[in-house]
Amino acid sequence: MRTLTVGLVALVAVLLAVDFGAAAYAEYRVSRALRDGGDLVADPDVTVHGFPFLTQFADGRYSRVEIRAREVPTPYVEKTTIEATLRDVRIPPSDLVDGAVRTVPVGELDARVRIEATDLGRFLDIPDLQVSAPPADRSDGTGGSGGSGETTAGAVVLSGTVPVGPVDTAVSVTAELRLDGRGVSIVATDLYFGPEGRADYTIPDFLKPAVLGLFTRTIDEQQLPFGLRPTEVTAEGGQIVIEGEADDVTVDLSEIRTS
Fold first, then answer.
1. Using CA atoms, how far apart are residues 232 and 160, in angstroms rounded to an integer?
2. Which of 17, 60, 62, 202 has an alpha carbon 20 to 30 Å from 2's alpha carbon atom?
3. Pick from 33, 32, 115: nearest CA to 72
C-alpha cells in the first residue's frame, strides 16, 4: 500500500511537471512571436491562466492569457508599459507546436498603456513629477475618487518643481485627463493646496496661467496594443493608464505595436 501511494505521488508530480513545462513552452512561443512582430527590446511576459494547461491545449481554447511588455518606447513618451488581457482565446495545438502562432481569435480583449510619473515628467520637462488621485472629498472641486494609489476617472493631481517667475517652486495642480480621438490631453485647471485648504506657497494671479500651462500637454496618437482604440484614461497608483476593450476580434501577434 505504501509503495502504491509513493507511486501515485510520483505520477502526480510527473504530470504536474509535464503540464507546467507545456504551459511554459506555449508562453515562450507566444512571447517570441510578440517580440519579433512588435520589434520589442525584450521578450514580453506571457501568462496562460487555467489548470490543467494540457486540457486547454488539446481543446485549442484558453480561458485567459495575459501579456505585459515593459520599457516600450513611443514617439512621444520615452517608454511605457503595454498590457493586454485576452479571454476565450483560440489557438490550434499545431500552431503552438510548430511556432506558427500569428492570428488569434479572441472573445474579449482588454488593452492598456501605462505611463510612469517619471516618464511623464520627462515629457512635461518636470523631472520630479508626481501623479496622484485627488481626495475623496469633493468639496475641493476635483471630483476625486480616493487618495494616492486609488483609481480616478478624469481627474488627477500633478506635483512638481517648475519655474514661477525667476524662482523654481514646488507646486501642485489639479488636472483633467481627456481623450481626444487617439490622443490624450492633460489639462491643468487650477492650483491645488490639499484637502485642508492651507497653502504653503504663493503664486501671483498673473503667473497662474503660465504655471498651469507647464502641466498642460497632449500626447498625440497614443495607440493601444493590437491597434485598439482608447476609450478611457485614468490615474492609478502614480501612473497614467490609457485603456480600451473590444469583443470578438482577431488579433495579429505581429501587430502588438502598430503605431
1. 25
2. 17
3. 115
Please tell me whether the overall predicted TM-score, pTM, comes out greater than 0.90 for this model. Answer: no
Residues in the chain: 259
For 154, residues 6+ apart whose C-beta sits below 8 A from its C-beta are 143, 176, 177, 178, 233, 234
Q: How far apart (Å, rounded) are the C-alpha atoms in residues 227 and 38?
A: 12
Q: What is the dihedral of CA 176, 117, 241, 196, to 10 degrees?
A: -50
User: In a 10 Å sphere around its CB, with 0-12 CB exposed, 13-18 middle and 19+ buried, how is residue 174 labelled?
Assistant: buried
Cα–Cα distances in angstroms (integers) from residue 80 to residues 34, 116, 181, 242, in the given order: 16, 7, 19, 11
In the β-sheet with 155-164, what is the strand arrangement from edge to edge?
130-132, 155-164, 167-180, 183-191, 217-219
CA dihedral 84, 90, 92, 98 (to 10 degrees): 0
Whether 44 and 30 have beta carbons less than 8 Å apart is answered as no
Q: Which amino acid is at 146?
A: G
What is the rounded CA–CA span in Å between residue 80 and residue 19? 33
